[in-house]
Write a structure and sequence with these properties.
The chain is an alpha/beta fold and 259 residues long. The chain has helices spanning 46-54, 93-103, 109-121, 137-150, 167-183, 195-201, 223-226, 230-233, 237-258, and strands spanning 4-14, 19-30, 35-39, 61-66, 69-70, 78-81, 155-159, 187-192, 204-208, 215-220. Helix 2 crosses helix 3 and helix 2 packs parallel to helix 4 (137-150). Pfam families: ABC_tran.
């Protein structure tokens, strides 16, 4: 049995006057420790799918199975990291990164120490008593990642977490997140519009068609790229050929949907 099974998931948004199908028959199996990216045109339902996997939204059809259990509501087993860091501005960094443990009634000295160690591993030392507005955007996103990992979720969902950052900070954070997830052996799913980011971070890339979102194609990233840090991946000869291939597939999907 796969670690994560997205079992023939479809979703339709209903209003009094219309019905809009966002996703249609999405079926995918993900192994433990795998890094998957969802890539596709705007409006293809990527964020809807992520919300369904997180248990925030119930699909119209199908189900999501994580480690043998159906996900029917939000669960601590799934961590969710968004484009905005959503740190509470009136709380210190220490209070922010410990809030998940506190809500789950798991906050003790051992967990606090482990979380602080993770904060330091992220290059954030002596910031515990600072407030979010005293940190840069990249530092806030690192703090948000610590908060997400503090509760030790089985899987991490990343919804364009680097898109609001400047390019240099984005590249540094890609490397940091990539290595952190490898070290913790976490399964991760990334939603992105960035082909390069998907190639640099993923084991597999799932290409979705325009609304209604369907799986159009799945690319397996070559081993020589999977074993390389995101920054170095972009300089690898294989990177360019895969980028061009995915670009053409995306362009074809756009063309087909506009006809």
């Amino acid at each position: 049995m796969s670690f994560l099974t997205i079992d023939h998931v479809s979703h339709t948004y209903f209003t009094k006057k219309s019905a809009t199908t966002a996703l249609e028959d999405i079926h995918l199996e993900v192994e433990e420790g795998e890094f998957i990216s969802f890539l596709g045109p705007s409006g293809c339902g990527k964020t809807t799918l992520l919300s369904i996997i997180a248990g925030i939204m119930k699909p119209t059809e199908g189900q999501v199975i994580l480690n043998g259990m159906q996900i029917s509501s939000a669960t601590p087993s799934v961590g969710y990291m968004l484009q905005q860091d959503y740190l509470f501005p009136w709380k210190t960094i220490e209070e922010n990164i410990l809030i998940g443990l506190k809500l789950l009634n798991k906050l003790n000295e051992n967990e606090k120490k482990r979380t602080f160690q993770l904060l330091h591993q992220m290059g954030l030392e002596n910031v515990e008593k600072l407030y979010p507005n005293q940190l840069s955007g990249g530092m806030r996103q690192r703090a948000a990642l610590v908060r997400t990992l503090s509760t030790d979720p089985k899987m991490l969902l990343l919804d364009e977490p680097f898109s609001a950052l400047d390019y240099q900070t984005k590249l540094k954070l890609e490397d940091l997140v990539f290595q952190t997830l490898k070290d913790f052996k976490k399964t991760a799913i990334l939603v992105t519009h960035d082909i390069g980011e998907a190639i640099a971070m993923s084991d597999r890339i799932v290409l979705l068609s325009k609304r209604p979102g369907k799986i159009a194609k799945i690319f397996t990233v070559p081993k020589e790229l999977r074993d390389t840090s995101p920054f170095k991946t972009r300089q690898h000869p294989t990177y360019t050929s895969l980028f061009d291939l995915i670009w053409k597939e995306l362009d074809q999907l756009e063309t087909n949907n506009n006809n």
